[in-house]
Amino acid sequence: MQHFDEKKPNNKLNSILIKLAFALIIAFFCVIILFVLGDNDSLETKIIAFIIYFLLLVFLLFEFIRIFPLPKWVRFYLPLLSFIPFFYPWEELLNWFLGKNDLYSLNLLINSQYQYKMFGIPGIGYLIQAILVAIPFFFCKKQLIDVIKYYLVTYLIFLILTITSKSFMYTNIENIYFIFFLIIGPIICDSFAYLGGILFGNKIFKNKKLAPKISPNKTIEGAITGFLFTWLILFLILWFIHFKYLNVDDITLVIVLPIFIPITSIIGDLIFSAIKRMLKIKDYSNLIPGHGGLLDRLDSIIITSFIFLPLFIVG
């Protein structure tokens, strides 16, 4: 596990280029997966999508839970625990596989994740999940307040990752354009925020940081640069590239949606940075040497998608 280090890169230009290169590589593979699975209602395609997104969920949970001071078996327990909510609701999911869902019922299927129920009672599913996720933390040899804090953070991220991965799966099949839109938004924001921080950081808002206690290297200038460029690019995409395919047919949304996507992207980055700061680590893993793990690269996309997918998937 790589511990937190405040040192800045010796060569900022190389750091920018490497960061951008990895962002483009991730984006490239995401696009391939999206378009291979997109707009295809066949049973085979849905099964492949199910496998891909479930394995992605398992890996992200594995990467996340390993940063906590817990027994090694927990690294496998929590990812496997996601199998239950990933299959919920069982009957509706089966109907989706068999092509019996229209757009209205699909929308209900996606949003039903927020009313997770077991034994026919909404909310009981969350209670059972909360208990099952809590079990490993009885083995955590830390102060009680730290154990409670670790548990609450883990349960929140568990819910976010599970719901988001399922929403990605459904959307990838039904509305590839919108999911592509949600992927490129955070990538644009992150890239331009990093570039803006390098070029303009501390030159306008001197000695002021965006969130000094969470991520001291992030500047207000960088956040503003990322926000402005993301809003402009997303607005142009919505305006000129047939925004009707995104099921965004209201002129107000064409203006407002590009505003909130960079905001949620920045917030997502800060949320996962705050967790790393709490545990005094730099990255969630060393999957990408010098640039962290998959969770480090997808943090903004995860939070943005968690907020917007259930609202705009099928209109």
Structure explained in plain terms:
This protein is mainly alpha-helical and 315 residues long. The strands form 2 sheets. The protein has a two-stranded antiparallel sheet with strand order 1-2. Strands 3-4 form a two-stranded antiparallel ribbon. 68% of the residues lie in helices and 4% in strands. The chain has 12 helices and 4 strands, in the order ααααααββαααββααα. The chain folds into 2 domains: 8-37 and 175-315, no CATH class; 40-174, no CATH class.
Give a quick summary of the entry.
This protein is mostly helical. It folds into 2 domains: 8-37 and 175-315, no CATH class; 40-174, no CATH class. It has helices spanning 12-37, 43-65, 74-81, 83-87, 90-97, 103-111, 124-134, 144-174, 176-200, 220-240, 251-279, 294-312; strands at 117-118, 121-122, 209-211, 215-219.
List keywords for this structure.
315 residues; two-stranded antiparallel sheet; globular
Largest sheet: 2 strands, antiparallel
Number of helices: 12
The tally of structural domains comes to 2
Ends apart, CA distance between termini: 43 Å
Helix-strand layout with pairing:
Elements: H1 12-37, H2 43-65, H3 74-81, H4 83-87, H5 90-97, H6 103-111, E1 117-118, E2 121-122, H7 124-134, H8 144-174, H9 176-200, E3 209-211, E4 215-219, H10 220-240, H11 251-279, H12 294-312
Antiparallel strand pairs: 1-2, 3-4
Helix pairs in contact: 1-9, 2-3, 2-8, 8-9, 8-12, 9-10, 9-11, 9-12, 10-11, 11-12
